[in-house]
Model the fold of this input.
Amino acid sequence: MENVELSAAAWILVDVLETGALGLLSVGSSHFPGSSVRKNLDQRARLLLMENLRTAIQQGSLVDKIEVNEGATWRVLVEPIRSPTTGQVVAAHCIYAAPDTALPPKPIIGSLEWKIDPKTGAIESEWNAGMYELYELVPDAGPSPTGDMTQWVNQFIAPEDQAIMKMTIDASISAHDGERYIVSYRIKTGGEDGGVKILQVSGRVTTSPLNGSIWLRAITREIGSMASSIMPEGLKVDTSGLLQALLNLSDDMIFFAVDSTTWQIFMPSPNLESHGLAVGEGGFLANMIAPADLQDCLVYLTKQLTATAPLASRRKFNFQTVSGVNVPMTMASEPFATETDKGRYIACRLVQEVNSR
Done:
């Protein structure tokens, strides 16, 4: 879509990369995949907005002024959107309208920021007020309602979208090249009705030139329907391996996937709780396996990941239930690879021993 003819008073959302590159995300109700701002706006919008947009981004402050274009007078408003931790400008809302025109409600934009330790992978996460509003959560005493990425994925993202979200972020963190990714996903809100929303995130991961720390910065907004994911060139995320691995293992069993870099669980099957199991805080496998069996389980999974051909072996381990009782279960596992991460993810299936039910 090019040269959008803008009606007056349509909010425009522009994404801002660390390089200063701009990407058009929306004009009113029309959505764009991080497209060129200049090429996709009509001439009047370009003349009124582009210079003011650059000024607002560079200065990090609101632009609210009167401009005259072809004899007509317009109010031009550009509002930078900052990341919640470092205050970096990551996006901007802009609009132009006749001075006496009432502006439409501004769409809610969530901004989040992660500081990632390059050695341990530990994540410090912070949300702005818009993120809480989108998720229908009340801000608590901490900077965000989740401990880390895996907990956020398991707690809020719909099961069918967990794999694409986690693997996209994992691949972006591995690349940390500042390129934009855009992913649509469904969430389970924290409101009383526990509703579902469709959100879209535009994010990027970079490395600090000062201390080498890795930063993920992203903005999130609600959209009307699911849209195709947009990945930068060279970043390929394919969840078919995970889905096939789970299908190979699932026949009314408990299943989940494991990220072996942190030994955290994601995409747990809905029947986990009915068997008395819980992923626990942070989603760590260690929260589910009995301490005496944990090391043996990690060795077993590591052998599966490093084998040149799939191993047909199954192993019995004791799992900790929420009631505090250990329950023996037989684990089967199958590794799956993505374009960017081979030997990292593994799908697991559990079968409870008959005499322990």
User: Anything to note?
Assistant: The chain is about 20% helix and 35% strand. The mean pLDDT is 87. The first strand starts at residue 12 and ends at 16. Helices lie at 37-40, 43-59, 129-135, 149-156, 159-175, 240-249, 291-306.
